[in-house]
Amino acid sequence: MWWWTKYLDFSLTRETAWRLGIALLIVAACLLLIHFLRRRLHDGEAQGAAGDMLRSGLRSRDAWATAHELAALGDFTGAAHALYIALLSSLARRELLRIHPSKTIGDYLRELRRRPTAPLQTVREFARAYEVVAFGLRACDADRYARLHALAAQVIEPNG
Length: 160
Prior knowledge:
By secondary structure, the chain is an all-alpha fold. It has 2 domains: about 10-45; about 50-155. It has helices spanning about 15-55, 60-70, 75-95, 105-115, 120-135, 140-155. Helix 1 crosses helix 3, helix 3 packs antiparallel against helix 5 (about 120-135) and helix 4 runs antiparallel to helix 5. The chain is elongated and about 75 Å long. The chain starts with 13 loop residues before the first helix and ends in a 5-residue tail after the last helix.
């Protein structure tokens, strides 16, 4: 008999135990697949807004203005995404990093670490505050947007 049947109050025939084991493996595989797909979908949604802005070619000046417009309308999450694009565009214009829609915040931070003149600490603080908004862990309210805006303003040249 199977080793685990001695801990249960009933015994199973070899065929029944085999079928039960297979069924449990299938259920576990399905749950794992569902978890993986949900996580993948969530990650895709989080990268979607900023990634769409990057792919559309939104420039720093446009993104900075868009952030202000969206914040005035109360769309602080959209405004935070626009600030992110404006920040990246400003850093790219100064040749501190290269923008690509597939790169993550962590990729950009690693790239900035190699540049001695980069405002790494400010961008790192921005990244920490932005990640919770980008990945939907917390809502972006007026206070969080104000913090993101203050950090971005230290790096972005609004007229550039």
